[in-house]
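Inputs:
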Amino acid sequence: MQDSHAKKTDDKSGYGTTGHEWDGIQELNTPLPRWWLWTWYACIVWAFAYWIAYPAIPLVSSFTKGVLGWSSREAVVADVKGLQTLRGPMTAKIEAASLADIEKTPELLSFARAQGAAAFAVNCSPCHGAGAQGSKGYPNLNDDDWLWGGSLEAIHTTLQHGIRWDADKDTRSSMMPAFGKDGTLKPNEISATADYVRSLSGLPTEKGSDLALGQSVFAANCAACHGDSGEGNQEVGAPKLNDKVWLYGPDKALIMERITLGGGGVMPAWSTRLDAPTIKSLAVYVHTLGGGQ
Amino acid sequence: MTHPTSHSPSLWQRHQIFEKNSIILVIGILIAISIGGLVEVLPLFYLKSTIEQVDGIRPLTPLELTGRNIYVREGCYNCHSQMIRPLRDEVERYGHYSLAAESMYDHPFQWGSKRTGPDLARVGGKYSDDWHRDHLRNPRSVVPASIMPGYPWLEQNLVDMSHIGDNMAVLAVEGVPYTAEMIKSAVSDAKTQGSADDAATAAFTKRYPKAISRDLGGNVGRLTEADALIAYLQLLGTQVDFKLYDDKANIR
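Outputs:
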């Protein structure tokens, strides 16, 4: 590079050159567009204004707080409080009314259903599905087949304390034994029982299966919770076995798997996570999905 | 612009020192960049108002730490953040905004910057262990519209515990309060956390308050990577009791 310092005006563009020259090629010193330059200056001025208005410069033991006195934590507390104030009158009514009254009062019902639907989408849908349709191991909440009861009160209790959620001492709990894993039943007994369970709801059974053996095993081991004819028991969350609604599926293999492994589904207790009015709204929402009792 | 007379070299000419010597240019760039870092990062280490002590935060147990390592290995942070910002919508959806103290023992922290999936800062206790197992194996089995990939190998791989003690020793150097006793009993603590009614549970929960033990077959060496990851996920965001945390007193 040759720095001749000979700055000339370029004939074609009318702009000056920088004075740099490489092998006879000179660098044109085209000025930045005015609009761009002024926008840039404005940004610099804005940055200084921002430093003055908002928390910005670290000092020795603290930092400049800004003349507006804004703080992100104060702002979010105020925002949430604003939301609570907005919902306040309705929240107070939901809190004061009984679950049954909420369902009977159209104004409260529409608020509870809207709030319940929003809370359901965030908290419940990962297990029970976006339309509360459930999936394998997670019950459908639209039908009238309930494990722990489908009344408003029962749904409310389940929401508050969860199912087999050890951190909550009032949680609903029961545990189906692992009949196969712990050796209580032999494989042929499990197979026969699975066939017998299928026969309870009129499903075809495997050819040559020993239904009599299944029946006696069922009476001795299963009937205490699931009922003599597989009618289920909501006191202990034992599913009804004589209908066509299945939690894990009607296949014989799946039924055998449940008999072998036992156990039961787990639902968190929501009282530590959601506030009381939201849980009430959720109970009303679930109850009005179609299967409420 | 007129050119200055020859006795004082112009600023333009002085700048040639940087342009013509790459080493001086590199040093100049380093100094310029460091100023930004020093001004923005360094004050956070000494300003009292930015350092918040919060009750309830304990270091991860060996099993949870193993889970965290799997979380990092599988790149979960690429799609999930662990940072609830102090904004109304986020607080409404995910719960209390994250506190710096909640990731004080994370090296490196898993705040993330991208949410293809939801934030996980408070996912602990939100779903059951079984749900996490189903979901990790095949997310679409429980959430049909999910675009998360499945991680079915996690429940087939047994956890590798051979380096967990070393891992804790390094973290101790970085300032995580792991004691020599904790490091020594790392492997047995992991097994204890993965089994129910273990006689060692009392000593374990004394070392790691409120840690939850589960019957995962840990005592017979059946702990899988999924178990470790679930133990970690179920802890996230559960350590601070926000019924006791005073939002007003902690405005800073």
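Remarks. Chain A touches chain B at residues 3, 5, 7, 16, 19, 58, 61-63, 71-77, 79-80, 83, 122-123, 125-127, 129-130, 135-138, 167, 265-268, 272-273 (CB under 8 Å). Chain A has a mean pLDDT of 89.
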